[in-house]
Amino acid sequence: KITGFGENIDVSEMTDEEKAEVDNIENAKREAAFNAAKETRINSLNRIFQEVSDRIAKYPANEIASWNIQLAEAKAYQADNTAPTPMIDLIASHRDDLGSTVEEKRQNLVNRILNHDVQWTTIIGNLIGLRHKKELEIQNATSFSDFEDINDIRREFYSLFRDVKNSLESQ
pTM above the 0.90 mark? Predict the structure, then answer.
């Protein structure tokens, strides 16, 4: 008897060709299970990445969707302070904490947008790089023992997030 994938198979009366076919079937089952485990691990990795990323941006989805517009306007204004900034002007008009004049509010909001973009890019860029690294490690695994513990991966993401955030805050 040989132990198959989840079962014992009696090969005592099989020909060599039949035994080889059983081996091929069992190897295919093992490979399929291993590939499924890799896919499950990558899904877990992506959930961890999303979990950590969500901690960065505690803003409503519609506001996040406007960031590209805000950033484009801020960069245009930075290059030419006569560039139109309709979104920034609307936001700034409600922000008394940014100054007393329209121009002062616009300039302060532009500076905040540009600073936040640098911070966001630094943090998310580091997290994306780590996600890519971990995904490649999973894809290149040749056995179950090659898989890093998922809790270790989660800790590494949170540690990187904290380190980069603290570094940015100390600047």
Answer: no
